[in-house]
Amino acid sequence: MAPPGPAGAHPAAAEPLSRSIFRKFLLMLCSLLTSLYVFYCLAERCQTLSGPVVGLSAAGEEAGAPGPGVLVGGRTELALWSSATQRKRFLQLRPGQRRRRPAGRDGGEEAAWEEETPSLTGGPVGSGAGSSVAEAPPGTLALLLDEGSKQLPQAIIIGVKKGGTRALLEFLRVHPDVRAVGAEPHFFDRSYDKGLAWYRDLMPRTLDGQITMEKTPSYFVTREAPARISAMSKDTKLIVVVRDPVTRAISDYTQTLSKRPDIPTFESLTFKNRTTGLIDTSWSAIQIGIYAKHLEHWLHHFPIGQMLFVSGERLISDPAGELGRVQDFLGLKRIITDKHFYFNKTKGFPCLKKAEGSSKPHCLGKTKGRTHPEIDREVVQRLRDFYRPFNLKFYQMTGQDFGWDG
Ligand SMILES: Nc1ncnc2c1ncn2[C@@H]1O[C@H](COP(=O)(O)OS(=O)(=O)O)[C@@H](OP(=O)(O)O)[C@H]1O
């Protein structure tokens, strides 16, 4: 057979050769681009990828936010960070965080989860399928890279029950430099014997510059709590969310009523003797609201400057304003602003446009913002009269007029 002539010579052989060169070239280009991209990320330039953290929150999971591993978040906050912090946040992958009791709790569900559904829900307003956000469990990229460590909290929301403590913590968690335990640890009132190592182990891992926080509203009325927290660290910053003590008492009662509908009326529980008008100060719903008395105990152990009093009312009417004060107090950049909130008319409360680790709007669950029962006006007035002197004392002690009496 004659060898192929020049015209139709080796067309079939020449083509595969150029294709294979082209394929090799493509492959090299891809590897080059990938390497460039990895290098780009490591060079702290990952703004285009994600928001404050690459991760998820239980709230996100629950609300149908992106699934595990999905990158969420926005760019604006990120731009405010120092580049070193950004790199660390990028490495701090937070996987789905689950509702769970603090390790080793031997109390019942009620003990650790007294406030019921301490969560943000993103379903229909008030869907209340609550979950809480405990610390990131082991297995995170951060853990693999040995990034971060568990620290005792530098700031604690110590009260008051029904003051708006969950709202404050959930709003604060939006801040990239705040990491918090979702559940109430109740360490300084119920589990102190378990020791500080146990307590620290409940905390989420943090990186340099991040603040570890927790909230347990019952600390404010626990006699032993001030000395115990001071023994942990006398530099601990304390935040108290206070609310008109009369509304707070009704809110407290409403919570109990929702669990035990057969309890006596608010009116009958308020008085030791209704005819004499003697208020029953041993009823916790009443006692918790005597803020000045509780505060005295704290002032034996902490200077007033180390405590911040947040108005529960303003936390609803002007969340960004109160969050501004809190961020200043914690020495944080003012990253949480009015841009983070919207008022949800159905819920009747401010909600987050985007909760931590989610890109969807989030309101607190249905156990926050319950409808209060109608209380006899005369009883309400009696309570107002009862609380007035304590409120005035509290205004003096804190240097703030919360406006409950005028
Ligand atoms: N944004 C937002 N959304 C929903 N609810 C809000 C919000 N801000 C403050 N509040 C008020 O928080 C009250 C519950 O307070 P706490 O979270 O401190 O309760 S608890 O002690 O942890 O059970 C809760 O009390 P109730 O209205 O009586 O249910 C709310 O009034």
What does this structure look like?
By secondary structure, the protein is an alpha/beta fold. Helices cover about 40% and strands about 10% of the residues. The chain is built from 17 helices and 13 strands. Helix 14 packs parallel to helix 17 (about 375-400). The protein has a domain at about 150-245 and about 290-370: P-loop containing nucleotide triphosphate hydrolases (Rossmann fold), CATH 3.40.50.300. It is elongated. A hairpin with a 4-residue loop joins strand 11 and strand 12 (about 350). The model is unreliable at about 1-15, about 40-115 and about 115-140 (pLDDT under 50). The strands form 5 sheets. A 5-stranded parallel sheet has the order 4-6-3-7-10. Strands 1-13 form a two-stranded antiparallel sheet. A two-stranded antiparallel ribbon has the order 2-5. The protein has helices spanning about 10-40, 60, 75-80, 85-90, 110, 140-145, 165-170, 185-190, 195-200, 225-230, 245-260, 265-270, 285, 290-300, 310-315, 320-330, 375-400; strands spanning about 120, 150, 155-160, 180, 205, 210-215, 235-240, 270-275, 280, 305-310, 340-345, 350, 365. InterPro entries: NST/OST, P-loop_NTPase, Sulfotransferase_dom. Its EC number is 2.8.2.-.
